[in-house]
Amino acid sequence: MRVCVVGLGKAGLPLAAVIADSGIEVIGVDISQNRVDEINNGINPLPEEPGLSELIKKHGGKGLKATSDYSTCPGKPGEITTFIIIVPLFIDYNKKPDFSILKKAFESVSKVINDGDIVVLETTVPPGTTEKILKPVLDNSNKKYHLAYSPERIMTGYSISRYKEFPKVIGGFDKKSGEKAKELYSMFCKNVQLVSNIRTAEMIKVCEGVYRDVNIALANELFKVCESKGLDYYEIRHYANHEYCNLHLPGNVGGHCIPVYPWFMINEFNVPLIKLAREINDSMIDYYIAKIIKIAGNKKNVGIIGLSYREGVKEKAYSMSITLIKKLKEKGFNVFGLDPMYNRTEVYNEFGIDIIKDIANMDAIILMNNESAFRDDLLKIKDKVVDVKNTLRKLLG
Ligand SMILES: NC(=O)c1ccc[n+]([C@@H]2O[C@H](COP(=O)([O-])OP(=O)(O)OC[C@H]3O[C@@H](n4cnc5c(N)ncnc54)[C@H](O)[C@@H]3O)[C@@H](O)[C@H]2O)c1
Q1: For the chain, where are the alpha helices, taking DSSP H only?
Q2: What is the whole-number distance in angstroms between the Cα of residue 11 and the centre of ligand 1?
């Protein structure tokens, strides 16, 4: 068995490392030469991912060889290679999926693929994408390959453990493709489930994301009602949740999963509930801005703690902190930021703001995610803090 993982990012690198750790020879392909070099030198480019550093140290440059050269992917003549592709799919300003990164990766694979090889896509895509948009790219190779789709279901921060805990769903283009992919994944995943076809497997992941977005929107709406009535949503949620009720936590929705996948449905179908949920979640930022203005009055220095879309993850894709910075600047505020994942230069270069030097000097602070690193300083000025995730109260116990 020989596996090429294409895209060594937050999702692809843990996968490549887990496969290598099961004893399978892995070639990791990434267009970033810097990333390739780090991995081959045993350096983990994602130190925030628990367990990954040990695996990269053990297998980097050995069982897991990274490269930016696709021509090194095929094995010896007659050897079967499985290509697992896990590069990002973004939506553009019109919320339409931009398939260019995926198409490029498939084009590169189509140039090195051989008869009998297996191609599995893991990137979350609108149902139908693998067969309608990406298979034609591979068909240019004129090779007889097997094709399957298996949604990546990790969560940054838990990536390694999820391969052991979560069922791994696979849909094949045909029976043989599904079986071949299942055989491979069973070597490093505990619970592999073959579903009817590729479109079913694609839809499973989209449904997961939509479910979470809609439920967070419901939580946000109920949270606002509770606040307006002087009621504690968190207490209510605690007692309401039982067998028939699973009220979610309110807050912003960011990252390149949940705010993106509902658009795959909204773009193609009449789904008013899903569309409204997206609008409700996006509008939460204005709700928090109104709170900031109430605290700061006409004073101007606002600090944002938590610039990544989630604590403990260095990821600014669709982070609502970016929207917040833009909106606060438009309102004339001086905006400062702090996030343990980013140093002073990165805060300036990536978010266009200066770092918070002294939390106590801010006129208002918004704690955007569950970041707990600044707990003591924030507790001293807690009346000046908009606590989006109820973090300070949780820390107090
Ligand atoms: N990170 C997560 O927690 C998460 C969760 C669920 C799903 N996903 C899925 O995984 C996909 C990828 O996300 P990610 O977090 O790994 O992204 P990422 O930005 O961290 O990494 C993507 C990697 O792909 C590489 N790449 C881009 N084009 C390439 C090409 N043509 N050939 C080879 N490498 C190429 C980039 O250099 C980068 O290293 C997402 O679109 C999503 O569908 C991620």
Answers
A1: 12-21, 33-40, 52-59, 100-112, 129, 135-139, 159-165, 175-185, 198-228, 233-240, 261-266, 272-296, 320-330, 344-351, 375-380, 391-396
A2: 6
